[in-house]
Amino acid sequence: MRHAINRENAFTDDSATSDGIDGIFGNRNAMPLFNLAWNYDERFAWDGKELSLERQALEPVQNPIEMHSDWDDVVAKLATHPEYPKLFRLAFKTTTITKELTTKALAQFERTLISANSKFDKFSLGETTLTPQEQNGLAVFLDESRGDCFHCHGNPNNPLWTDNLFHNNGLDANFSDLGLGRVTGDPNDNGKFKSPSLRNLAFTAPYMHDGRFETLDAVIDFYSEGLQNSPTIDPLMKKVEDGGVQLSNQDKADLKAFLLSLSDPSFLTNPDFQN
């Protein structure tokens, strides 16, 4: 979508749902782009509808909300551009531009978007220390009786900070967006969306597939007191009957401090990602 690629927001945007070329808004938040090469199940987008980065790059061009164009028109514009034929020849040994080569180039660029220099990364390498607040936040994150976040979002041994799987995390009792269920046709998948990485949360608000939470505090409050039950609720949402994990105010603040330690400011200024 038009404003989705924004380096200052870790290659997403800052609106709840992104607007397309005609100013029409979709119903999904733009997912940030980093560490995509390690998406081991090769399912992309919130609902997993795209089975490779190359295929994901095909659809937005002809989507009536996003670019509202067609590939013949895009290829023609690239072919008459003063620089792109030269770049295609350097990359692919041909000046004949096709949609297949274009999406291959986009996908290869996306695979270079690596974020691995957060404060927590440096801590893991023994280059810095965590504050007591960040240390307790990590303990909350890993504690099944408190935050219980690690099942879906990994741990220090899984530095992607996501399981790359799909879960109904209790956002709604009824679904206006079926998520994975719309893709598979299986009602057991209704309301399931991909677990996003927790990296770079400092830059990627708003949060969730529909951008409903403007702040990280609101996300933490949701998991603490706002869970909604439904037939497809994930079994990992063990405290759904209580509305959530019921964190203390101190644990909420500490969890937030830890989560922010997963953000990588150098990713935003990497010269390799600039025009």
What does this structure look like?
By secondary structure, the protein is an all-alpha fold. It folds into 2 domains: 36-111, Cytochrome c-like domain (Cytochrome Bc1 Complex, Chain D, domain 2); 119-265, Cytochrome c-like domain (Cytochrome Bc1 Complex, Chain D, domain 2). 34% of the residues lie in helices and 1% in strands. The protein contains 11 helices and 2 strands; from the N terminus they run αααααααβαβααα. The protein has helices at 53-62, 71-79, 84-92, 99-111, 119-124, 132-142, 150-153, 180-184, 216-225, 249-260, 265-269; strands at residues 166-167, 193-194. The longest helix is centred in the middle third of the chain and has 13 residues, at 99-111. The model has no long low-confidence stretch (mean pLDDT 92).
According to DSSP, the number of beta strands is: 2
- Report how far the terminal alpha carbons are from each other: 18 Å
Shape: globular
User: Helix content range of the residues, please?
Assistant: 25-40%
> What is the chains' assembly state?
single chain
Question: What is the N-to-C order of secondary-structure elements (H for helix, E for strand)?
Answer: HHHHHHHEHEHHH
CATH architecture of the largest domain: Orthogonal Bundle
According to CATH, what is the topology of the largest domain?
Answer: Cytochrome Bc1 Complex, Chain D, domain 2
Structural class: mainly alpha
Please, what is the CATH homologous superfamily of the largest domain?
Answer: Cytochrome c-like domain
Given as residue ranges, the uncertain stretches (5+ residues, pLDDT < 50) are none
Major sheet: order of its strands? 1-2
Radius of gyration: 20 Å
Q: Main beta sheet, described?
A: 2 strands, antiparallel
- What is the number of helical segments per DSSP (H or I, 4+ residues)? 11
Total separate domains: 2
Highest-level CATH class of the largest domain: Mainly Alpha
Q: Average pLDDT across residues?
A: 92
Strand content: under 5%
